[in-house]
Amino acid sequence: MQAKFLSTIILLAASLVSAAPAADPVLAEVYFCSEMNWDGNCTDAWINPSQCYSIGDLVSGGVFGSIGPSSKTTCTAHTAEDCKGDDIPLKFPGAADGGAAIGVPFTELRSMSCVVE
Fold this sequence. Notes:
The chain is an alpha+beta fold. It has one domain: Crystallins (Gamma-B Crystallin, domain 1). About 20% of the residues lie in helices and about 35% in strands. The chain has two helices and seven strands. Strands 3-7-5-6 form a four-stranded antiparallel beta sheet.
């Protein structure tokens, strides 16, 4: 009787563990502003880590003057679609000067991917 009861408890516990909902994925946050110096229209983009995104899909028309990943996010921008071309690292607080600080005008950036630390 005790063995049957114990078996039932173990099966019940195992089913509860397997029925637990999956943890929400941690998303990477990138902040864009349409103008330099964090001015103009600003928006957050929440993206899946390690996935490549076209910058035009993240910010209207791909035009922006400031970009900054959150403090726990590191991004790599690219000068070509599909995360190809030159790699341009972006770390918090980002760049608010149209690209002068990273050595590439933002108008030349086409895609990006990020990771959460």
